[in-house]
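Continuing the batch. This is chain 6 of the set; chains 1 through 5 are on the previous pages. Same settings as before, nothing changed between runs. Recording input and output for traceability.
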Amino acid sequence: MTHPAEWFHTWFDSPYYHILYKNRDAQEAQRFLDNLLRHLRPKPTCKLMDLACGKGRHSIYLNQQGYDVTGLDLSEKSIAYARQFENEKLHFHVHDMREVFRPETFDFVFNLFTSFGYFKADYENVVALRATTASIKTGGKFIIDFMNTPRVINRLVARETKEVEGITFHITRKVEAGFIFKTIRFQDQGQSYEFIERVRALHYHEFLEYFQMAQLRLADVFGDYHLNPFDPEKSERMIFILKK
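Output for chain 6:
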């Protein structure tokens, strides 16, 4: 099953994506993973999947905690980079989350830092959830970490300029047709570039409908990386703990 080129194929494979986001807080991410592991208490023998793993920083960290980890991502360049870190219990594969990867194999699947909702058609989100659920063992868990959409929309910064590595990124944001669009324009070595990120503005109740369609049971929902309870008004994140 092949899919036509979508925005995430080009942008996530671009070196500029990694330049723009290079200062993402690695320590915050590790603290979040530590909190999740304390909450979930996976046995040392558990198999973990990092879905939409990018260059593999979360997969690498989970593997350093002793787990057998498989990182999956659509970006060939990110996976090529991540593969230098592979070992007996850490593997990376180029994979589209809309397709099943190894049925009934994983005890835990992590989908972190808003790595969901990229698809144009709404039903493809359910296809992706069902395909991923198929790779989880019965009784296993699926963790989805997504922005708290209403809060993000309320605080949307329409225009922003960022300079990283001598490149000036001009960023604009808008909400349109059920998506949050971020347009990134910049010049480098005399050439102009434009990339668009598009993520579906998914609300809590829409996720609940998706989970029902994918036959996932909601076990917990947290509102931030410290795993405080979810508050629809104030929470920064929606962190869903789902059980198959």
